Amino acid sequence: MADKEAVRLAERIVRGAFGDLVGNVAHVLLNKGRLNLAEICHYTKLKTRSAQGVIIALIQHNLLWHSEVPQGEKLVEYFEFNLKECLLRLRWGRILALTEDEYGSDAMQIVRLILNRGKMRLPEIISAMGVEEMAEKGPREARRLQLSRLVYDLLTTSHILPITAKLHQAPFDEMLQRRRAAEKDMGMATQRAIATVRLQVMENIREERRKEQDPASAILRAQKKKSNGVTATSDKKIKGGEYADQVDPAAYLRINYEVYDLKLRNKLVESAVASRWNRPAGYVMKAILKASAEHKSYMRQTVSGPVSVHGLLTLMEEFERDSLALGFGAKVPAKKERLGELLAAYAALLSGDDDGSIVKNDSAFLEKDASVGRSSGNMYRVMFEQSCGKMKQQLLEQVVEQNWGPRAKRIVKVMLHGGKMGEQSISTTAMINLQDCRALLGQMHESSLIEIQQIPRSADRAANRTIFLYYVDLSHAYASILSILYKTLGNLEQRRQAELDKHKDLLERANRTDVLANRDLLSHRDSLDLATLEETMDKITTAELRTELNVFILRDLPGGPEAVRFDDPFSL
């Protein structure tokens, strides 16, 4: 069941993006669950034509699933709100920034168009980029070819994916129908056999959805024309696009959020390494993550593919290679012959092998790949689950410290290390007097960050003959923090809308055509108010980005309890 604060946040997002009419439909679907068209019209008091228009708009933006359910002799279509897709709209700013850094401003504009319109075809993208408005044919065709190749690059690197009508169908309904059919054919079966069949059904659906959004399905392979029996394959024609692979103009394209989540995850791991040791160590981790990208990556994976240390130098910038020796305290950059030794030293540091201890290091970011022989050199894997799990625990400790101070943080760290403990043991280990320790434990228990287990010493379960053990249930603690973060984001969205409503007249004057051309036409008072409004909106956006990053760490990264993660069981 979705968190009530997440539901409130999603409704705020929809109202801010589409208005109150669409927001009312989203409110009903979020709070009532799956509904058919007649029920939506009943709860929203909308006419059928208006409700259909809202549903089409939400499906266009990938915010609704639909499914046909048999009722008697007819099929009834039901609609279900896609909560995760809605909450991911808060990540658009980072997605645009990552795209511009890697591919440039044109790619960023293409991604912005697709995000704002939900899904688009190639001709629609080219038209929206203003190509048809260019007067001269030569520059217009060159621009068209440039944008087509840019969309092709984004598609082949899976930054955008094709989407079909099948992917709009609710996957859970399809799963239940296939489960019932498979279990009906089995007859009398054991629980293990039923569980195996259910897993197989999910895997089959996942494979079908993977094929539906395979980038290759939206690419038209090059057709080599023949003239008088001779195949034309000159490099000039291929580079000009006449026979090159092209994006299917009939294919609808949408943004692949998972690719951007992987980039953000890698940046967080790199930042964690740099914060733990130094900047050069972060550069080494950045190169290792680049090398691991050659293997198939996905957000659910716990470790990366094997990476050789010897090939990392080619993936590093010159200034990054020069800083390797400086990270170990040298005054000048190392010679080229010693760079391999330095990389091996950094890999040993990141894997916890630098101290020679036989005890497993829980804070290590890498592990040696034991499946590779010595002849292949040292191969390492990035331990995403362990690294991201540490990030989540650090976020928990930060929340505790901000709300109850450093002594409460010490208490939480003691319980994370020691497990279930009595208040006397916690007080002694954390070096806090018993009275203060008891008060802090009670406050954190009220906030659902720690739990209590009662162990009665007598049959009557009297309180004075009961042992109370305190412990940190990470699943409940993370869920509690996540709910607080959702509430914060909802309040920020509400504050943004309130500011826009408050200065509605000012914005209308500022957005006039003549004022946009010459800002001096605004009065002095309006200019000051507009500057104050822009400063307020910048502060709201900054707070929103920081809060959403914490949501990403808790909800989307591996590591920690599965109950908190927002995983789609049918994702790739």
UniProtKB/TrEMBL annotation:
The keyword Nucleus applies. The keyword Nucleus applies. Its main location: nucleus. It is found in: Nucleus. Keywords: DNA-directed RNA polymerase, Nucleus, Transcription. InterPro entries: POLR3C_WHD, RNA_pol_III_RPC82-rel_HTH, RNA_pol_III_Rpc82_C, RPC3, WH-like_DNA-bd_sf, WH_DNA-bd_sf. Residues 208-234 are annotated as: Disordered. GO terms for biological process: DNA-templated transcription. Residues 396-472 form the DNA-directed RNA polymerase III subunit RPC3 winged-helix domain. Pfam families: HTH_9 (PF08221), RNA_pol_Rpc82 (PF05645), WHD_POLR3C (PF22536). Residues 9-64 form the RNA polymerase III subunit RPC82-related helix-turn-helix domain. Residues 220-308 form the RNA polymerase III Rpc82 C -terminal domain. GO terms for molecular function: single-stranded DNA binding. Transmembrane segments: none annotated. One of its GO terms (cellular component) is RNA polymerase III complex. It comes from the Eukaryota. Component of the RNA polymerase III (Pol III) complex consisting of 17 subunits. Belongs to the RNA polymerase beta chain family. DNA-dependent RNA polymerase catalyzes the transcription of DNA into RNA using the four ribonucleoside triphosphates as substrates. Specific core component of RNA polymerase III which synthesizes small RNAs, such as 5S rRNA and tRNAs. This is DNA-directed RNA polymerase III subunit RPC3. It comes from Naganishia liquefaciens.
